[in-house]
Amino acid sequence: xxFPHILFSQERPNVILFIADDVSWDDFGCYGNKFVKTPNIDxxxxxxxxFMNAFLTASSCSPSRCSIISGKYPHSNGAAELxxxxxxxxxxxxxxxxxxxxxxxQAGKWHMGTSPHKAFYKFTDIDTDPSAKSNGDGGEDxxxxxxxxxxxxxxxxxxxxxxxxxxLWGADDFMVQHDPDSIExxxxxxxxxxxxxxxxxxxxEIARFDYFIGKVRDELKMQGELENTLIIIMADNxxxxxxxxTRVYDSGMKTPFVVxxxxxxxxxxxxxxxxxxxxxxxxxxxxxxxxTVPSDYxxxxxxxxxxxxxxxxxxxxxxxxxxxxxxxxxxMVRTKEYLYVLNRRPNFTNCGPIDSNQSPTHEALRELRDxxxxxxxxxxxxISPRPLEELFDLTQDPDQLVNxxxxxxxxxxxxxxxxSLLSWSKETKDEEPLNLTPDWYDRETGKAxxxxxLRGDMPDGxxxxx
Length: 466
Known about the structure:
alpha/beta
């Protein structure tokens, strides 16, 4: 049902959701990165909002995407593990837009199974539909054709998801290049020529993503649709590097989140500090479109922040780490001041996924390890056993490098964060299975184990098929 009185403008907004593949929150220029070249995203940010505390529900591709499209946590929508399709009974929010008169289409990376296809008039899921048109190496080839070929008498929603910046790298011959020598290396990487070249290739992928966003923006302007098109730019998980992708720290779970909508956002070049979660995307877009939000959606609309960037809609966000190549059961709660992690598999290393595990950056860390030259931050991916609990004071330690869980100074905060996570687990029915999906790959080399990869039980308690 359409309720025009809740909208900022007289007509329902068009919506384009851009999703980068494996990009951390601080790898756009508008977040202070001085080395990556993202002029188009930076321009949109200067004309809109740059959310400084946006978080995913999982730093893992398909669980994160299924969470965004369903408005639910991964353990609540039956798609908590990598390569698990979204079950039929969960309603993707673009379907509700479609039913209320929107033209909906998806182009680029998919990775959510066939059930949500019904939400779109057109899609390019080349993984499950051999007849789907190729998306090109970066996943952006169909963005402009879809925008141009749409029916002109309907508001539109586009789910534009790139393959950039997923490994293997494919943009090293792209028109925008980055100099390895100019890059700032994070403290948990080894500062070697191999790492710098690896990071430069990653930035080249981000530049390609940025280039196509600029082309879409130009096309919207030419069509006269830019003013009333809500553009959201985000990622599905952190960069595919050690201590990032799959991890519940900010380097894995915090996402860039740029919102541009001239007709609805009046305070441009603003950086809201309020916490938002990826599950908030669905109810926000539905509210702006005048569509009733399903009662089982778990997100909170951040429309109040679009109206007034100083408003806060959340006190905390929650996230999870389930099977992604390796057995895992981590849960996280984060406020502006503290990050608390509960790891129910502390006997294992937290090495990251195989694409990171086999990267030149990870290999550089192995070489330092074998020489006995790792610092504490660099050693993180090799530690076993790990702490059962971790607590970080973000006001003093924004990179989450010093675990203060055993400090008496933080006992009150630890108690509060434990209880917050426990309440969330009970409320969302998050239960630890007895039979989790085991490792399918070697944690040291990333090579496939000589086993038949079988699924265990999901956090929702439902046994998965082989």
